Amino acid sequence: MAYLRCPDCRLTARATAYYVHGDRCPRCLTLMEPVERFRDAAPASAPALAATEDAARLSAGAVPRAG
What we know:
- With 67 residues, this protein is of the alpha+beta class.
- It has a domain at 1-38.
- It has one helix and three strands.
- It has one helix at residues 46-62, and strands at residues 3-5, 12-14, 33-35.
- A three-stranded antiparallel beta sheet has the order 2-1-3, with no helix packed on it.
- Strand 1 (3-5) and strand 2 form a beta hairpin.
- The N and C termini lie far apart (55 Å).
């Protein structure tokens, strides 16, 4: 158990963090659950990747070019 995650507010903290007292979330005082990873290992979905690429293309076109 490397991390603790709050099931309500999704705060994740190291199990040895000084501000986690008694396995309670410092934000909402819910009992935190042990987890092995900081983030879920779920892969990004295709629509999310396409939206990210579209946003990058749009922002790159909006940058004025000097010269």
